[in-house]
Input
Amino acid sequence: MYIVCFDMESVLTPEIWIEFSRVSGIPELCRTTRDEPDYDKLMRWRLGILKEHGLGIQEVQEVISKIDPLPGARKFLDKLREDIQIVILSDTFEEFAGPLVKKLGMPTILCNSLEIAPDGEILAHKMRISHSKLSAVNAFKSINYNVISVGDSYNDLEMLKASEAGFLFNTTEKMKQDNPELPAFDDFDSLYSAITAVLKG
Amino acid sequence: MYIVCFDMESVLTPEIWIEFSRVSGIPELCRTTRDEPDYDKLMRWRLGILKEHGLGIQEVQEVISKIDPLPGARKFLDKLREDIQIVILSDTFEEFAGPLVKKLGMPTILCNSLEIAPDGEILAHKMRISHSKLSAVNAFKSINYNVISVGDSYNDLEMLKASEAGFLFNTTEKMKQDNPELPAFDDFDSLYSAITAVLKG
Output
């Protein structure tokens, strides 16, 4: 039996922080791990900026609810889910992902969480496990699933390589060149065909 | 972080084979593991009966699509999923569960599968893994989830006991008496309160 694991950002939805920065009008929030490679430090800095702007979880979710999945993502998932179970494996936070996951038809998402005060202030981020995507793929393999996975970036490579079939999607030319063994697609129709070809053996 | 694992039949939906027997008008199909304790033998017998009646997967799914979830189940899940990830752990088959899972709002279901011929004939059943519910709970624990689980019958006990919180739901007086350490509920409101009490610590 197969299960398909999807990275979320850039694959099914825009990058949340970049879109958040644009929609909220707080340009410095588009800083990413390319600017600050220490993710923990970056997240503490981001939460500090939210606090400075008086944005609690409710305000943040209101902004995120204005972000839409990538065009075609919902239709693609709906069609795929007729035949196969899917889960989203993401390094984002459940409370941020919520509004986007609803727009994607409520697939299960395994990610991280936030510590939130009763008044809505976001106090801290809590990472569930290191190598979270690889760990999840191994967990599904441990219960006899064959895993197909789809991702776009460096933090997806472990997951893609541990899967029976790993596909790059919406990625860069450099990622494609550096990982020639991973088939790469840029549109949902081609990705759908590649996944169903694996399912049909 | 928490995840909630649900048994499906008797908890969120009726027993599929009993309802199938009723809706399809094939009374002998309400035979269960109480009559034939060897599940593998029972399933081969059931598939033989389907074949005798000329019922392929399409006809079977048409019958199953007439079965509804238990009253209140969808509303309960929708409300719960605002706050927490859920999965269904079931010993049924993906192809049978499909129409019911749609009516439940498309939660992820981890179960078994059928081998189906191109003409729709159901050839065989394929069990993914032994102790499938316990294995799934352990898989989620391996990636640092705290598991809450809900079930009604003997084949749920391993799952319930391996979880941080295990709840009996819609079960028999005998199950309640034999497992006094497992809180038991008979309506979705009480179950919702019990689950959210765990989430809030």
